[in-house]
Write a structure and sequence with these properties.
The protein is of the alpha+beta class. The protein is built from eight helices and 15 strands. The chain has two domains: about 140 residues, 3-Layer(aba) Sandwich (Aminopeptidase), CATH 3.40.630.30; about 140 residues, Aminopeptidase (3-Layer(aba) Sandwich).
Length: about 300
């Protein structure tokens, strides 16, 4: 049996130090407010303030945050003496891949030891074959992630642009709408690309987004998810197949009424980067970094989930 910290504890012996406890679904509204305050503060410090309203972000992110909360491997919150949640951290586990999905402390309570205590509990060093984070470039967080045993592998950028309908240029490529009967195929493709797969979470994705399986000569060569709320993940067994797949994704985005298509592209994915740049997509200046405890996956043929909380 894995041992770890108790369900409740304090970050310090100080009487005004927050208490750490496990999160529950009832905490979702409060942690969302912590996320908003922390993320907006970071965006302003980075010189990339958000244009989205809180209502827009709530509509877009709420289903994902509820899903993460319901399926978290670890979820810890820091609660002040008066019952206010001032920080939280969560992770999900898929097979042997442990991902830190969120790690936020309210700007007024940062640099006081709360973050370190949350990270130790939500992202334990003894869990997972690989531990990974889609991390911001915040230097204080980076220092913690390195101390937690991860290393920055490469940057990830949001490639953004208004989609336009475009013909698929590969007549041998067949796009088939995916359903629950295709989950085993989706898992097999993702394992071949990332080394791990998201298991039953594909069912949730299929409920929220259009899923497509791409085949050539009867063989499944890739998949993509696209929706108005956000697109991805997208995976191809061979990197060169991505351009044709992305043409189909862009056309479907138009048909779904997407005005701005945003794709989370690892910058080592040269095929996707070049294709999207040629299509007129722009690189959003807000970067994230994939950090992990060891190298894994073939990210030259992968595009992540948007918004970038998880791979």
């Amino acid at each position: 049996m894995r041992t770890g910290p108790s369900d409740v504890g304090t970050v310090a012996a100080m009487t005004d130090a927050p208490t750490l406890r496990r999160g529950t679904p009832a905490d979702t509204p409060a942690v969302f407010e912590v996320f908003l305050a922390s993320a907006r503060d970071l965006a302003i410090r980075n010189g990339t303030p958000w244009e989205s309203t809180d209502a827009d972000l709530r509509e877009r992110l709420w289903p994902l945050l509820e899903h993460i909360g319901a399926h978290a491997a670890e979820w810890w919150v820091a609660e002040s003496a008066d019952g206010e949640i001032v920080g939280y951290a969560r992770s999900v586990e898929r097979g042997g891949l442990l991902e830190l999905t969120e790690f936020f402390v309210h700007p007024d309570r940062q640099s006081g030891g709360v973050g370190t205590a949350l990270l130790e509990r939500a992202f334990p060093a003894d869990r997972g074959q690989v531990r990974a984070i889609i991390a911001t470039t915040d230097l204080r967080a980076q220092a913690r992630y390195y101390r937690a045993g991860t290393v920055a592998r490469f940057p990830i950028v949001s490639m953004e642009g208004p989609p336009t309908a475009v013909a698929v240029d590969d007549p041998s490529l067949e796009a088939i709408r995916a359903g629950t009967a295709d989950i085993d195929t989706l898992r097999d493709i993702e394992r071949s690309v990332l080394e791990f797969d998201r298991g039953d979470e594909f069912g949730w994705l299929l409920e929220r987004r259009e899923g497509w399986v791409y085949r050539r000569d009867g063989r499944a060569i890739g998949f993509a998810f696209v929706a108005a709320e956000g697109s991805g993940p997208i995976a191809a067994r061979e990197a060169e197949d991505q351009a044709s797949m992305l043409r189909h994704v862009e056309t479907r985005a138009v048909e779904l009424g997407v005005r701005l298509l945003s794709l989370e592209v690892p910058m080592i994915n040269g095929a996707a980067m070049r294709h999207l740049l040629d299509r007129g997509f722009k690189i959003d200046p807000f970067l994230t970094l994939l950090m992990s405890s060891r190298p894994f996956g073939q990210f030259d043929r992968y595009i992540g989930f948007s918004p970038p909380f998880v791979l």
